[in-house]
């Protein structure tokens, strides 16, 4: 793990890591794989050209793909095992090169690109992503709504809180996603209290910020997803987001725009056939200011 992310800007930009022994650069030769996600910082951006991303290992291009201008980019993890490229003991250098695909285009105004969670898998080392552990929520003297009892749950069903589950991928617009607290500031774990929507605090939940997305593996064992959603009270009357729930990439529900002045919206989604559940927050088409997006009491009903 190098950093949580790196912002780059076309027309041409290259990020390179090498065996310098520098504090910021791990010794690559103790590592077995490299991964990253990449996405545009701003979306939509109608005047933007496509961009070409090239991955180079030991000065040899091993992959190249296009970041389509009319998308946010790929939120999937791109992973490269060094053994596949003849460097079983780790390479001397790796680099990511990002190039404006339209050389005659001099307007790079919308070409802000984020390299998200560039990550090394190394011996005796876990990435910070893998080290991320759920933490206990703050004690709450104020009354908080417990999850309502599930009328369709059978005696063999259990309630699982999303904030207690491992994330199989995640992206967040401002620092990492917070478990059981509001988003706070940019640092991890700096939430200022529980997620709170319309004056109601929730012991469990997720503090997110647009544009963000998190996925968990349901393994086909869960029947319902339920959550209250809204702009966190830490944003006051500011902010505007949409909350979306996707199952295996298919949109299941979309709240439309919710603003800081809106009450919490209750979601109750059938996920019986879903393997990969994705919770997404968008900036609702205006901007990212104060888009403190909270999932209050986000939970699943699953087979015991
Ligand atoms: Ca934070
Ligand atoms: Ca917004």
The general outline is globular
* Backbone CA Rg: 21 Å
Q: Within the CATH hierarchy, at the fold level, what is the topology of the largest domain?
A: Jelly Rolls
Per CATH, the architecture of the largest domain is: Sandwich
Fraction of residues in β-strands:
over 45%
Structural class: mainly beta
Please give the share of residues in helix. under 10%
How many alpha or pi helices? 1
**N-to-C span:** 35 Å
Features:
Jelly Rolls; 1 helix; binds calcium ion; 304 residues; 5-stranded antiparallel β-sheet; mainly beta; 1% helix
Task: Write structural notes for this entry.
- This protein folds into two domains: 145 residues, Sandwich (Jelly Rolls); 146 residues, NPCBM/NEW2 domain (Jelly Rolls, Sandwich), CATH 2.60.120.1060.
- By secondary structure, the protein is mainly β.
- Strands 9, 11, 14, 16, 19 and 21 form a six-stranded antiparallel beta sheet that branches. A five-stranded antiparallel beta sheet has the order 10-15-20-17-18, with no helix packed on it. Strands 1-8-3-6 form a four-stranded antiparallel beta sheet, with no helix packed on it.
- The relative contact order is 0.16.
- Helix content is 1%, strand content 48%.
- The site of one calcium ion has 9 residues, from loops.
């Amino acid at each position: 793990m190098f950093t949580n992310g790196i912002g780059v800007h076309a027309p041409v930009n290259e990020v390179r890591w090498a065996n310098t022994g520098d504090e910021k650069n791990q010794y690559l030769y103790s590592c077995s794989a490299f991964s990253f996600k990449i996405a545009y910082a701003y979306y939509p951006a109608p005047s933007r050209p496509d961009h070409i991303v090239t991955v180079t290992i030991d000065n040899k291009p091993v992959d190249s793909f296009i970041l389509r201008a009319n998308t946010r980019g790929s939120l999937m993890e791109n992973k490269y095992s060094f053994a596949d490229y003849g460097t079983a003991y780790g390479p001397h250098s790796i680099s990511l090169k990002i190039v404006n695909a339209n050389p005659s285009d001099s307007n790079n105004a919308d070409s802000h690109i984020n390299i998200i969670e560039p990550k090394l898998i190394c011996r005796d080392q876990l990435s910070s992503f893998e080290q991320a552990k759920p933490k206990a929520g703050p004690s709450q003297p104020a009354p908080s709504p417990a999850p309502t009892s599930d009328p369709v749950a059978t005696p063999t069903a259990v309630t699982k809180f999303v904030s207690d589950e491992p994330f199989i991928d995640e992206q967040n617009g401002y620092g990492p996603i917070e478990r059981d607290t509001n988003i706070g500031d940019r640092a991890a774990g700096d939430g200022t209290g529980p997620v709170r929507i319309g004056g109601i605090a929730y012991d469990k939940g997720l503090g997110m910020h647009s544009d963000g997305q998190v996925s968990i593996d349901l393994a086909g064992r869960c029947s319902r997803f339920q959550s209250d959603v809204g702009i966190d009270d830490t944003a006051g009357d500011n902010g505007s987001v949409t909350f979306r729930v996707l199952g295996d990439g298919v949109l299941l529900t979309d709240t439309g725009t919710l603003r800081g002045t809106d009450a919490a919206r209750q979601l109750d989604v059938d996920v019986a056939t879903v393997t990969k559940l994705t919770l997404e927050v968008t900036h609702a088409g205006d901007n990212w200011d104060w888009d403190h997006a909270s999932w209050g009491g986000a939970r699943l009903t699953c087979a015991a």
